[in-house]
């Protein structure tokens, strides 16, 4: 039965049931067309035509819809009244789900790859609206949209196949094509650019722009420090290649129209990416000018599932599934894995690294590329598990944004970046010198090592001081070191001496919404926050002594950050760490060939970007801008190697 028919049957069944009870008038069979029933029936049934509102939480806020239900049996229209989903991905998914519901008259619609939360929110919001029209949703949600391509196989041929169209995949596809290869790039979602579309800046060492701006890194020193800081458990050749070749990537990107802007970031050579809304188009143009111009293809909404191998074990292509269910078999001499890791796979991250915080990376990156590669013999690196823990979040922020201005809603967030407050782990024990909050990577990793979240303790006396004097009131040594996009919409107020308004109300709302806890006493706070009362009391007492004596015997926090807490009640802000991506999973040599068990290259298989980034870091990601810098650089160089391998050059 088609979905449309199923929906009709559901309505007919509902109408029949209502009629049987109320007017004892018969419907012959639930399978008969709705037209056979009395035209006035819906007035007496539980189904009522009209326009209904439904809402549900998406990835970045509430999705609100208006659904028009019309006689005889139709979801006539869906209007998206408001939403704040990610531009180009989440909002596109809402539209796509809407179209599919309307076209097929079913709620059994597949989530859009890479936007599952947005898709689910849309489905739930519509479901809630339809529910108000009355009736049993079971029929409407059963089955699914039949896929036109199911059972069909399409065969394609290329010199190089690139899997994944993030920064690394696009770069690889472009350079491979520029070397003369026929390239097919396959992307799971409808979006080109992956996580680069969400990023801020990249590090391209000693780029022409950096040098023009008078900043030059001592390359040998940088490489030596990098290796030592990672306890020598890294690939020295890979680090040297990135540090010495990434500067060229800046010029290469510029020559392709992807222009970054140099920024001296406290001595670090960062390059701010182009305006957010221009990036995807620029990457698409790069693909058109190289890949498509050279006879290749860009295939989106297609998920690679399996690598094809020949009798010798060499990789000779990829099998993928198109959105319509068609199986695509693409044979090629080189396959470049650029699938961006597994941060979207919570279980995999927990097993590999023990991390239980928030996934701020792409939801569609669930480890498929790694699993495919491991299945053909790729070695799991000894240091497998590293993550890109780079940001601290306050659980309260999104809820507060519904009630307060961005500035006010960000109070808990800002406090979680200040070294002058007390931080404890879930048990109530202090776990670090809070000055770690001054460096994002140190802040994130010290927290993650101590549990799924930490608590930032703030007293009512401190809230009063914030209201009177802004962050100067709690002796903040500088502005919270959060990423610029976190304060972009209140940058005018993002100052140490801006008095905070509505402070107590905001913190009361935080507690009410589940983003934190409150206790009139320390004991009560421990109880409400699920901490061990004894552990927290001891930590609190020790911290109080440290603020009085100016000596922190537990963690050695500097005297200027030891600020007395003052009178309660006390609040505990729930702070969580945002994982921007997993790091590594495939070992590569400097040609980006994937290594097998004996550390010998697997013929035909290459990896770039996050999938190969474990060669740079021992256990976890360190470094501003390396994610972007390495993805573009490894892609650029890996694409050239893959083309050379395929073309025998
Ligand atoms: C919010 C955020 C902010 C960041 N900010 C910065 C920053 O300022 N500076 C910095 O250096 N780094 C930053 N990073 C990290 C940086 O963006 C990444 O390291 C980098 O973009 C990764 O590139 P990639 O090509 O390896 O992977 P991705 O960009 O993740 O691309 C992988 C692509 O593969 C696709 N894919 C996955 N599975 C399949 C499959 N089975 N078949 C086909 N396609 C598949 C995905 O849909 C995706 O498009 C940030 C990351 C995030 C999430």
Percent range for β-strand residues: 15-25%
Low-confidence stretches: 1-44
Please state the average pLDDT score. 90
Q: Biggest sheet, strands in spatial order?
A: 10-6-5-14-22-21
SS content category: alpha/beta
Alpha-carbon Rg, integer:
28 Å
Topology:
Layout: H1 3-22, H2 41-44, E1 50-57, E2 62-70, E3 74-82, H3 90-104, H4 116-132, H5 137-141, E4 153-157, E5 160-163, H6 167-178, E6 183-186, E7 201-203, H7 208-212, H8 219-229, H9 236-255, E8 261-265, E9 268-272, H10 276-292, E10 297-299, E11 302-309, E12 315-322, E13 327-331, E14 334-337, H11 346-353, E15 358-359, H12 368-375, E16 387-394, H13 397-401, H14 406-409, H15 411-415, E17 422-424, H16 440-448, E18 454-459, H17 460-469, H18 484-487, H19 503-512, E19 516-519, H20 522-528, H21 533-549, E20 570-582, E21 593-595, E22 601-607, H22 626-647
Parallel strand pairs: 4-13, 5-6, 5-14, 6-10, 14-22, 15-20
Antiparallel strand pairs: 1-2, 2-3, 7-9, 8-9, 11-12, 12-13, 16-20, 17-18, 18-20, 19-20, 21-22
The structure holds flavin-adenine dinucleotide.
Task: Provide a descriptive summary of the structure in words.
It is globular and about 70 Å long. The longest helix has 22 residues, at 626-647. By secondary structure, it is α/β, with parallel strands linked by helices. The model is unreliable at 1-44 (pLDDT under 50). The strands form 5 sheets. A 6-stranded mixed sheet has the order 10-6-5-14-22-21, sandwiched between helices. Strands 15, 16, 17, 18, 19 and 20 form a 6-stranded mixed sheet that branches. Helices cover 36% and strands 19% of the residues. Strand 5 (160-163), helix 6 (167-178) and strand 6 (183-186) form a beta-alpha-beta unit.
